[in-house]
Amino acid sequence: MSKISRFFKGGGSASSKSRGGPSPQEALARLRETEEMLSKKQEYLETRIERELAAARQYGTRNKRAALQALKRKKRYEKQLSQIDGTLSTIEFQREALENSHTNTEVLKNMGYAAQAMKKVHENMDLNKIDDLMQDITEQQDVAQEISDAISNRATFGEEFDEEELMAELEELEQEELNKGMRDVRLPSVPSTSLPSRPGKLLTSHFMFLMIKACSSSRKRAEDEDEMKKLAAWAS
């Protein structure tokens, strides 16, 4: 029985047989060992082919029989090498297929674990309770937004009054103040005595007094107007 036959038929461990077959890891390990063994056999055959070819050249026509025997051995070695190449290609294909199958198995296994974990997480979840919770959250968010809007809006105290009516009343007050100021102004009486031909010191003093009084009245009216404008600006 060849080494390869013993490897595949009798190489299995007792634990593998008791489980009904080798595990993917064990099978992959054995395939890699087989590839390594065949690769070494390839190197051996390539070396023998080179030796037989060198011998045939050495004998040449001087020893045709020995040269032909060397060439025949070279042909046998080349045939074995070709068979090993095909075997290695088959084993490599099988190993890659087994690796992919093992990878897919592990992926499916992990996906199954994840599905079980998700199922366990969702066991205590009620969709109706989740809908109620989301509705409560939405309502509270709406309430919070309304509160924020109410806080951020400009205060409207006193805006229930009509601004046009207030301005009309303010104009009336200003007119009354102006009328009152006009009534309080008294013009100086015309002197009964004739004025001198040249203004003297007395005329000059009287004229300065009238000018000061007129300026005071004008200043008072200007101050009253400023106060009324400030009042109107505060009311608006």
TrEMBL record:
A single Pfam family, by name?
A: Snf7
Q: Where is the composition biased (Low complexity)?
A: 1-24
User: Which keywords annotate this record?
Assistant: Coiled coil, Cytoplasm, Endosome, Membrane, Protein transport, Transport
Subcellular location as annotated: Cytoplasm, Cytosol; Late endosome membrane
Q: Does the keyword Coiled coil apply?
A: yes
The membrane topology noted for this protein in its Swiss-Prot or TrEMBL record is:
Peripheral membrane protein
Q: Does the keyword Membrane apply?
A: yes
Q: Which domain of life is it from?
A: Eukaryota
Please list where the region (Disordered) is annotated. 1-26
Name the chain's protein: CHM4C protein
Native organism is Galbula dea
Q: Which gene encodes it?
A: Chmp4c
